[in-house]
Each structure stands twice: as structure tokens, then as C-alpha cells.
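User: Hello, can you help with two protein structures?

Assistant: Certainly.
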Amino acid sequence: MSKLLDPRNWASWRPFGLGLRKPNNYLELLKAFRAVKGRRRYAWRILTQGTCDGCALGTKGMRDWTMDEIHLCNIRLRLLPLNTMPALDVSLLRDVSALAGRRSAELRELGRLPYPMLRRAGEPGFARVSWDEALAVAAAGLRDARFGVYLTSRGVPNENYYAAQKAVRALGGNNIDNAARICHSPSTVALKQTVGAAATTCSYTDWIGSDLIVFIGSNPSNNQPVAMKYLYHAKKAGTRVAMVNAYREPGMERYWVPSNAESAVFGTRVTDEFFGVNVGGDIGFLNGVLKHLVERGWVDETFVAERTTGFERAREAVAGQSWEELEALSGASREEMLRLARLLAGARSAVLVWSMGVTQHTFGEDNVRAVVNLALARGFVGREHCGLMPIRGHSGVQGGAEMGAYATGLPGGLPVTPENAARFTELWGFEVPSTPGLTATDMIDAAHAGELDVLVSSGGNFLEVLPDPGYCREALRRPRLRVHVDIVLSSQMLVPSEGDVLLLPAQTRYEMTGGVTETSTERRIIFSPEVEGPRIGEAWPEWKIFTELAARARPALASKVRFTGTPAIREEIERAVPFYAGIAGLGAFGDNVQYGGRRLFADGRFQTPDGLARFSAVPLPALERPDGAFMVATRRGKQFNSMVHERIDGFNGAAREAVLMSAYDADRLGLPDGTPVELRSGERSYRGRVLRAPIVPGNLQIHWPEGNVLLDESRRSPDARIPDYNAMVTVSRA
């Protein structure tokens, strides 16, 4: 990697971008320093001795395996208070009416949950109980019950996922799901079908030196900030960066990497080519690019003939789609599609990166299949500096499904079938259900319909992460028992119930004896040791909570579900998931193993029955937009998952109530910046204020989770069952 200064990639000649709108990374450092006052030594040990619990790039301490440089991102700094804060005063929970209406950030700031707490039906609040009492209540509720278990991905390690899913199966169900369901489940489905592996096929090192990186519906400057350092080095190595999105993200236009001297002073101009598409128009655009590749003879015929199948069906599908149809759906011209086709055709290597802008649609699986088609058409899989990368936003999300914490999957990502269930029945010594369980959204539906007796939520907040908070609130009221496992309070815990509500305090990954592991976006299984520091009350590791629940609900299976510690869990994971070979040997800071090596399919064979990758005939979705209507997408601002850190986004100056609108549409409707407007989708409505932004006309963006009030909870994709986080709306002055 060149260490010479390269003004061609500078974002500005102004030192440190003074006077320009951008996040102040050094101010973030100061805020983090202030936020952990009195606990700074512990915070420093977490930063330097632990594996990052933020996004899924997986830095060890403040370094990683891509380059020998310091990494420290704002997301991780903002999580420090959660990992170091003292216990809350449990007397605050005696009557929760005083906490009603508080924002989630205010509830978190009250402190860590220190003890098990129980709220009986009809009582005003929670009373402290012992672990024995709490487990007795939970076990009695779970015994012979219709139940569902949901785990979020906020720092949840592989050991917790594995133990939890085993416990759920011991209880007699497959109703366990995790946060991957509502972010990358379409990627899991489509990648399994097309290349045989539901993971990124390359490593971050493949970015640096690749001819081209294409980001599709993905914004790492906001969601995976450490990745921006990789892009800085990729640009230095001559890599071109293209972006396909409805919104021209300011952080992907130019970015100041705080830990790199050149980028910190002059910034880095990131995106070379931008392609604007409608919200929901990705298939129209990507199919148009494939159509150009086919018609102009820019397909890698050798790769297609030797390593793939189904190309003729895919070719016929795009041949039957007219340019007029593709342009109308995508919002882009055939010339723009040709421009990306030329970039792909002229590149010897390329990495295609996507995220929730692609997946969170009712046709999310087809969106991913369309991305895979482009990579296969050019042979950009299995080679150096090439690959398919569904970049993950949370440190626990890749391992969640691979550990089997999935309603539709067993450990190793195996589908729930009688044959696979029999395999785990033999391994574990108890009967494993052989039919798929309820997904996260299905659990809420069942609870709403009165068909779920017990709902267990580990972390997360259904009121914030799923469409239609009112619908979710009603669903939360109806089970006879709700169990919330978490480190802090959340608003869903305070929803009054027709039954009992139990709060169980969990440990962070840094508090767990024996250490834990996470799996990063690049398939790297990384050990994170226990970090010396204060411990909170009677908090337990989640692996112990779930196995004890199963042991007490089904005493006959107690010896089969209990573990002596996390090393024992890793030993069993290695037996249950063959491609996790090596996890049992991880036990010191920095220990890691990358399953599949630097890149998958380097031998030319894919993980499909015949070893061939599969093209897909991707149909155009039926998206008809009435005159005057807009497509609105939900976006992230200064936040991590649903945890909002700042009201104003430093990248674009958008407040949480901002409605991002193109200047063309704002002028056409006579709406100056700051104008109060109402967005309506049927009976659903949202009020905000106009903010002009570089977004494709006819499209809007509003913040998530605030914008969830517009979303239809019944709209989900057919295979992955992911909710649709977009809506068709009309706009009027409020």
C-alpha cells in the first residue's frame, strides 16, 4: 500500500475539512471520554483487549487482519457507556408509569439491569426476585406452551446463539429467530440457492487492489465506518468505486478517516461513479445492466460455460424485458445502465457489496439474485480482488444463523428437514422438531392473534425494529408471559400485559468467564476474552439463562442442555458445524480462524450439489406508482441499529423528523426547506419537515425507526419473510 500523498483522491484542500459539513470524529472521541467518566480504565481495556461489538468488521482491540493500522470508529465509542455503566436503581421500576413516554435513550441511560425483576398482571411495576424464583416462573410458563424466542444481534456472541437455539429445541420447538431475519435473510436465501454459501465470498483485503467496487443500497460510511479506511487504501491502489442508490450519500462522496493522517487532513473522495435508481427499482436497473452485457458480448463466456448453469434462462428473461419497462421501474436511463455495464466489462476484478437497501423489500430475494447474476456474468467470484459481499451491520448477525438461531435453519445453516433434525437428535440426545418454526414477524402475528402463550426477547425492541409499532404494542400485551433478557431497559419491557412480565439481567460479552467468539462479515471467527472490570449485580451470561430455562422446564433433559462454560460450548459447536473447525481452539486475545479461507470457491467449484453456480431468471416486480405518489424508504442517521445517538446527522444535517426530498420535487410542490408535511399511506401517516437532498425525484427518505408508523406489517418477502421497510405515500402540507 502506497504511503505517498495522492492529491487526486483528496476531498478538499481545506485542512481537516474546516467549514464543511461532516461528522467531527475528534469531538466524538471527547464525548466518549466524557461519557465513561469514572470508568475510563475499564473502557480502555474494552477498547484494547476486546473484539468490537459494533458492526461486523470484527476488529481485535483497535486493529484487525486487513492492515496494520489503528482502527477506532464512532459506533464502538458510542457503545462504551452501555458496556461500562453502573446498575440502575431498581426502585424506579416499582411504578413504571413514571417512565412512560421516555425515549429509549433516556431509558438506557438509567443504567444496567442488575437483578431479575417480575411484574405480575395488573401490578403497576416490577419487584425484585431471586434467580430461582424468576426461573421457576419462566419454566412454568414455558412448559407445554406455545412460545417464541427472538435474539437481537447487538453484540450477541456465537456461544449465546448456539446455547439458546439448543435450549429452544429441547423445549420442543423451532420458534427461534434473530435479527438477521429483518436485515440479510434475503441474502441468506438467494446466496444459498445460487452459490451454495450464505456468506460473503471474499475478504476485506480483496477491496484493496480490485479494479472496481460497486455498492448497491449500502452506506458503509454510516453503518460500517471502519470500512472507510479500507476504501481509502483501495483508492490509493487505483480502485474505482461506484454506487447504486436512490440517495447520493454524502459520506460516500467524501470521508475524513480520523486515524489516517492524509485522509484526516484532506479527506478522501470516495465514489467515482453514482447511479441513481428508484426505491424498489434495483431489479430494473441491474437487469438492464445484464441485458447490455449480454447484447454487447461482454459476458465471460468461459466462466459461464464451465462454472455456472441457468444462463440461458436468465438471458431469455432480460431479453424479454423492454428498455421502456426497465427504465420505468428503475428510474434510470438505458444509457446509465450501459455506463455501469461498461465499468464491469472493463474491470478485470470487482467486488459487489450490498446491504439493506437491497434486502428490505417484498422482493428482496430477487434483488440479491439480480446482483449475483452480474457477478456470475463477469466471473467475479472465486478470484483475487473479486467477490459477493452482503456487508453486515452488527457484530453478532453472521453467526446467528450459522449457529442455528433461526426458525428455518439448524446449526451450520442446514434447512429444517426431517433428515437434518434426525442428525441433531442423534447429536444432542433429544428429539429435535422437524418442521420450520415461526419467524420473528410470525411470532408477533401469533401473539397479536392470541396464539402465543410466551414471548421471549433477548435484547432488541419490537416497538422500534418492526413495522407498525401500534400493531406490535397490541401483540406484546397478549401473551400470558413475556420474558425480556437484556442489559438495559427498553420501552417494550414497560408495555402492560394481560399476563406476567419478567426481566432477566444479562452480561456483556466482555464480562463472560471463558471468553466468547463472534463471526465477522468476512467469515472470520474471532475470540474476545473476558475483560477485567466491575460486574453488575446478579447478571448472567445469556447462554446460561437459556439453558437453565430449558433445564427447569424439562428436568429430564437438564444434563443434555447445560454447559460448564463457553469453552465447552465451542467444543460442541465444532462437532455440530463442521465448517467452524478450529473454534474449539480459540482461547486468547486475537485468536481467530477464517472458515473457507480468504475467498470461497477459489478451486472453481461452488457449494451446490453439482458444483455449479446458478443464474436466476429474475422477473420485474409489479410496482405501479399512481400519479403524484412517492416511494419512501427508511434510512439510518446518527444511530446504531435503533439506538439513536444524535438528533442531527453530521453527514447531511438532517434532523430526525427530516423528509429527504429532491430539489426538483420540492420546487414542483412549492415546499421550501423546513416546511411541515404529512406523508400518508392509506390510513397510516407520518409528519416531518422537508429537507432538500440529492435523491432521485419521485423518492423520499425518512428516518428509521420513526418512520415505521408508515409501514404495512403484512408486507413481507415470500421466502425470507423479511418485512418491507418502504411505502408508497402521498405528500401534503401539514
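That covers the first. Now for the second protein you mentioned:
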Amino acid sequence: MNTLARRLAGAALLSAGLSFGLAATPVLADTPKDTLVMAWQFDDIVTLDPGEIFELSGAEYGAQVYDRLIRFDVNDVSKIYGQVAESWTVSDDGKTFTFTIRDGIKFHSGNPLTAEDVAYSFQRAVKMNKGPAFILTQFGLTPENVDQKVRATNPRTLVFETDKVYAPTFVLYCLTADVSGVVDSKLVKSKEVNGDFGAAFLKTNSAGSGPFVLRQWKASELLSLEANANYWGGAPAVKRVLIRHIAEPATQRLLLEKGDVDVARNLKPEQFEPLRGNDKIRIVQAPKGTLYYFGLNQKNEVLAKPDVRKAFKYAVDYDGMAKTIMNGLGTVHQAFLPKGFLGALEENPYTYDPAKAKELLRQAGYPDGITVTMDVRNTSPSMDMAQAIQGSAAAAGIKINLLPADGKQVVTKYRARNHEALLYQWGADYQDPNTNADTFAANPDNADDAKAKPLSWRNAWDIPELTKKTAAAVEERDSAKRAAMYQELQREVLETSPFVIMFQQTEVIAERSNVEGLVWGPSFDSNYYWKVSKK
């Protein structure tokens, strides 16, 4: 290693404050065998509370620390298996699900996990009514009735009642979501302050039973996990996982090549090929049910015009970005259901056509074009995409002023509907098509103080008729008919919505070749560290 490169690596590690429980001094040798060190951009984490987690990085964290009632097989998502639940039955009328809770599970605190903890976790999420609560409230659960509808009848039996009949797989897939993470009710209740359900405590602490225990979180800096040696499924092979927020892909690559980190998560396409020739590094590709899109806030009277919305869809150079910025990181995909989901539409009707976009703007009353601000997460590839869109849109008569910020700032602004345009990612919450239909094609209440706040609400898109169609699709029990209903919904959203959906993500991970056992699933909350080991 030449002197300059050594200094760069040392400076990068020093600025990151990387340490292994000792002094924060640069380490220029391989990482300890009992520690997995990961470089990742996780500035989008807002909270570590499973009742509130609603960002991709937070969801991945939750999957390591909290067990869930049930999960799906990452290699075959049609297969659902019990985690906290040992087994379950569905009543003849299809509205009551009864789960037998596995015996012998203990929380990190040493408290036994019982059906009461599962019931409390669901009740807590519904009563707090944070972002992911809709996954449960869509079954008719309210703060007033949830204690009766979700209850423990004994320490090993949980009853979950829905308001009407749904496809059983839809209910079960919803219960694989982050919001079903089981919290230690005794611990959380002891940390309540002014009736907050322990939310202040769980924002920066953990109360789970999973294979890892939270040790430290510093926003946009460090996430430190320690192995749960008493995990009921078997102790992890590594003693700890250290995740550093390393914003620059070039720095991630440098640290990976020197062995100062074991995994790099945010490399650019041009960095992959040189690494493929390095026998100490492997490149792993994991197709995700995650979409890159930008939304146009319909509170803005200019962006609310149908022809303006459509003009944006012709102002994006999809193929150009696919061949450069997104080469290997994603494929062009314009419908709201990712490939692999029931009813997913594989039609991409929009191509880059600046002349057509200009004509649409003229028809809308803006022959001289428009100007809009776009919020964007200051990470790769989001910033690269935003700059490419800025360039292609300029030729279409749309001037875009970019407002880069860290993920936490961007998503907080988005949730308050204070943006004009915003570029972001959306990951499926569960493996049923309603997960995306309910956020891109439904908005039951467009008021600022609405209880449900899907992406349609965030962009103030008021769609009562489309909302009814989405509700009807989730009740259809015939799979073929249901798939056709979702295809119709996708076509309508493609035609009329304020969403410009561009790509379906492929996560590309670079690992040191001595790392084994990491699982990269179809969603970020199905990325698992539990079985990782280092040769």
C-alpha cells in the first residue's frame, strides 16, 4: 500500500471513529474474526422502535433485534413459517386467527416471551398510530377495540380477529411486517413516560428477543449490535456487528479492499468490475421489491395539473440512467407493484421525450416551462439520479432545483407534506400486492390530520374512487381475479398519478471472501446477519 493510500485509509477510519471496543484508532489490518464490520449509508434511520420504524435501514435493524410472530422464506416467499408462533389455525368464518406461541423464548432482559407480549406489541402499535400502524388497523383494529380483538387467552395462545373476511395469506403476510416485532412488555411498560408506551426509550434502546442486542446508535454515524449468546435459535457465530455510516462509495471501496471493513453496501456500478478481479472480494446481487420514484405534491397548484404530472413522466431519461447510474443496481420499472408480486405489471409506457413533455406543459398553460424544487437524500445513487433527472428535465422545459439533505431530514419533511417534488425509495412492507396498492393507490382521508398517511396522502393526491377499487382488490379471494384488479389499478396510477416510478432496485453488496452466511433477501427487513461467520 503506498503512503498516500495508507493515509487516506487511516483518515477515513479515524473520521469514522471505528473501534472495536478499544481506542478509536485506525486499524489497517483485517477486522477481528469475531466482529462483522459493515460500511453502509443508513442516514434514513429516524427511530429504532418497531412500532414506528418505517424506513429501509430501520427495517433491516429491526430484523436483527426483534423476533416476529411469523416470517416468509427468503428463497420462496410463497412459504410462510412461524417464528414466535409455533403454529396457527384459521376459523371457519375466516375472521379469527389463533396462534400457538413457541415455548422457551426469552427476551434479552431474561424475561420469558409469552402471548401477552405479542398482544401488547400489536396493541401498542395500534394505539401509538405511527407510520406502520396501518398494516394492523386495516383489519378494523382501533385504539378502542384492539385490546378485545388482539388478546392472549393464556401464556401460549394469541387470538387475532379481523373485521371481515380477507384472503388468509394477505393477513398472514401483514403479520410478517416490521410492526409485528415482539417487544418485552414488562421492560417497555417500566420505561413509559407520560403514557408514551415507552416510545422515548425504544427510540434509542432495544427490548427484543432476536439474535442481536442493540449496544449503540449514533445517527448517521454508528450502529453497534452485540450477539445474544442465549438466543433460542442458537447464538450467532460473531460476537458483534459494527455498522458505520460511510457516505462516500469511494471510501467504502478503499476500506473494503484493505480489509478494514468486511462488507460495503453502496458502491457505484463502475466500481464493480475492478473488484470482480480481486479474489479476496465477492460481489453479491440481491433483487429487491424496492422502487425508486419521485412524487409531486398536489398541494402545489402547478404540479396538480394532470398534463404537468404527465410531462414529468416524459422528462426522465430512464434508459440513459439504466445504462449508467443504475447499471447493475436496478432495472427500469414504472408500475407500483415490483416484479414477483401477484398481478405485477411489466409495462413501461414512458420513454424520454422532451418535446412531448414541453407540449404537455404548453397545454397546461406553461409554454415557458416551470420551476420546481426536489428534495433528495444526499447519498448514492439518489444524488446521481437527481442530477440526471435535473439535466433531462431541463431539456423538457422543467427547471429543477435540488435540495439535498440526509435521509432523516428528507423523510421528516416528506411526512409533513412540505415538499414540492421528492425523490426517494419505497420498499414493500410485506409480500402481498396490497402493500404497495394501499400506499400508491389509496388515500382514504386527504386531510392534514388524517390517521392513515400513505404515499398518496404524503403527495396530497385525493382519490376516493381509486381508494374504493384498492379496498375491493384486497377482499377478492380468487387469485386470478385479484391479479387482474391490481393490473387495472397499476395502469390507472401510471396514467394519472403524481408518482414517477423509475426503477426496481437490485441491491449489490461487496463482501470480503472470508465472510459467509449473510442473507440478502427480497426486502431490507429480510436481510439477516444471524448466521454470518468469518473463516
